[in-house]
Every structure is written in C-alpha cells, then in structure tokens.
Design goal:
The chain has about 210 residues and is α/β, with parallel strands linked by helices. It is built from five helices and nine strands.
C-alpha cells in the first residue's frame, strides 16, 4: 500500500508558488509518477490551483481579514490557502477528504512553520460551528461537486460565516450569488497564466433593514 506522506516526500518537489510570496509547497513535476496512484485518483493536492493562488494573494494584501478570526480552508488540496491564512493568524483549520490531500496539508504546513489543523466537514450537513471565515478555492471545478458545495456554503453564510471563494472563472462558478472583490492574473495548473478572481458569497436571506 502506498503511504501518502512517503509518496509526497519522495515524488513531489518542495518549491515556491508563483505569485504567492513566502510559501513553499510540495508540487508535482514530470518525474512525479502520479500514475502510480491509479486512474481514479485526482491529485488536486499536487498542484497550486489558480483559485487558491488568487485567494492567497488576496489574503496577503488584506491580512485584516484573518486577524483574530477562526478560519476554515474548505477543500484544501495542498493547503496553500490555509497556510497563508495561518501565517497571518493563529487559528486556522483545513477540511480535505482525500488522504493524500490531508498528508499534503500536514507536510506543507510543517514546511512553512505553521499549524493548520485538519477537521472533518460534511457538506451535506449543518455548517461547522465556530468558524468566522470560510475560504474556498477551486471548489466549482465540476458541476456535480458545485451542486453540493454551493448549498452548504449558503447555509454557512446564512448562519453568519463570511465566505470567500477563489476561482479562475470556471463554467460552474455561480456568479449570480457572488460579489467580486479582487481580480488578478495567476499561474494555474500546467503553468498556464489566466485571470482569476476572489468573490464574497452573498447572504441568501439578508436581514431586513
């Protein structure tokens, strides 16, 4: 059986993330042999995705968003967004269901000298208690995933949690319920430069004035 921690350390390279200052994460390269994990494996954790990169950039430009708040990095992948948040504030958790992703979060957080606690979150259930800010990078990459994530994030927003979403304008991004707050050019998977944005999720049931 392949051990996630060992595989990541042996087959990925720890290196800087283009466009995000002061952070290094384990990233795939031409010799990473990700095919060993099987055709059904989706190694989201092995790359810095554009939505996460633009969210990281936004946090670094606005550290006050994190200061003094309990933060959740939802669908953390490599943990990039949570790591940047943890560099700015001490109380950050990450939710990631893939065992390789969970290992990547731990390894990458340790490599950057920060603590990002792994937590379990059920997007079919109630909003997780205690979080004041949810960061969701690249969670609208697939229509089926988007159909589950959006109602969950809306429940979180209605419960009073601020939600920031990073995405390079994918087809399933629900722009009708989002407020754009930041835009930039990032290097996405495969080394492709593309425009990406940060969006604040609107409250589906705002309080009456």
């Amino acid at each position: 059986m392949i051990q996630p921690n060992l595989f990541i350390r042996e087959h990925l390279r720890l290196g800087p993330v283009p466009g995000v200052a002061g952070v290094e994460v384990y990233q795939a390269h031409s010799g990473s042999r990700l095919s060993r994990l099987g055709s059904d494996a989706a190694p989201y954790w092995a790359y810095a995705w554009g939505g996460g990169v633009v969210l990281a950039q936004y946090l670094q430009a606005h550290p006050e968003l994190v200061a003094g708040r309990r933060v959740l990095d939802l669908g953390a992948g490599s943990g990039l967004v949570g790591i940047v948040a943890a560099q700015l504030g001490p109380d950050v958790a990450a939710a990631e269901i893939d065992p390789f992703g969970r290992a990547a979060v731990e390894l990458n957080a340790a490599a950057n000298g920060v603590c990002v606690a792994l937590v379990d979150v059920d997007i079919a259930g109630e909003p997780p208690a205690g979080f004041e800010l949810i960061l969701a990078g690249d969670v609208f990459y697939d229509p089926e995933v988007a159909a589950g994530v959006l109602p969950f994030l809306q429940r979180c927003r209605e419960a009073g949690t601020e939600v920031l979403i990073g995405d390079p304008q994918r087809r399933d991004l629900p722009v009708g319920v989002l407020e754009p707050v930041f835009r930039g050019v990032v290097t996405d998977m495969g080394g492709v430069e593309r425009e990406a944005g940060v969006y604040r999720l609107k409250n589906p049931h705002p309080a009456s004035p």
